[in-house]
């Protein structure tokens, strides 16, 4: 019972029942309204931590089956529809990519890549920041859990370097030497690498799926192309911006390359399994980018990659079975995608989009576009993950934008990116946040203040640099 928060359970049930018994608005089917009650209650339960995400997801699926909101009067079809999320290829893409990411950690390849960048760039705090962030960037396309990238690869190395530079977590007076600076730089860079690639964090494929439900098709390549320029500008500016707004006391870190070199010596030469991991990584990137030429979609490519790793011995089936994060994600993601898809197919998303769109109809899309983005972005204060925000709000905001004439692909990708970009706001705003905040290098006040500064910087770059880039590639 330790994972159950009974106060949050009571609040969650109260909100769900209140919506359920409110008469459905004109133009909305009763079962669609009742599905909304289950969906909102599930999201509230996740946000308030009434129970684990997996528990809330299973409860949501069960309620959809028991109440027959997906197929009134047909219990057999109701359970089939309630479980339909498990047949979604996008969900399995995320799960498969988790398994593949395991190879980077087991072989030590991810750690080796990070130390090599520190060895090359680590003579100053700026160089260290860029070295760590570049390692994250290289790993991002193949590790869909930014929490795994941060917690399994980047954070342990960052903390080790900070400690060796005299910035000790247990000594607050040493935090600003370099530990606090590297913490915020690594965390915010993780938010950026998460939006550069469709497969870099779990919320991106969810946004892709919801966009497709509204007639906006996004591929791995089109996402990467649209996000590349504004994303890389943000990536380059993060260490420089923090160096001015939250500077480290140390200005030189000449010992860091030697520390990295020592760690690399201890690791020894690149193993056969690491080379196999590199080869698999390259094959995956080629298939994800050029898969359309071979009639291979992203999920099939991930299956091919996993098969290579299993047949070559880089991974074992025990590794796959023990990847709890993947199986957990498949369960709760299936639940949220299933409910989100049926809210759309039952007409509720379209109804709400027209309702709000009519209020914005007097505005040109050029004014509606930034308004939609800004409101959506700062709603992230209410969310503890990008996935929860995308599940709760993405389809609604995208449908509103499309209704008032905002170019669909541009809005879909920007909204998808905002869910991760705004993870910078709080110490709970994204999966890696508790990991970095838990280092204690940055106090709560500074985290929120610097996070707000970052959110403004990110939005300015995506509106200006991104807007010009999207014009150049024909998105508007």
TrEMBL record:
The chain crosses the membrane at residues 5-22, 28-47, 54-71, 91-115, 178-200, 220-243, 275-295, 301-318, 330-353, 365-384, 396-422, 451-470. The keyword Coiled coil does not apply. It is found in: Membrane. It comes from the Bacteria. The keyword Transmembrane helix applies. Pfam families: Na_sulph_symp (PF00939). It is a multi-pass membrane protein. InterPro entries: CitT-rel (IPR030676), SLC13A/DASS (IPR001898). Keywords: Membrane, Transmembrane, Transmembrane helix. GO terms for cellular component: membrane. GO terms for molecular function: transmembrane transporter activity. NCBIfam families: dass. Belongs to the SLC13A/DASS transporter (TC 2.A.47) family. DIT1 subfamily. This is Anion permease.
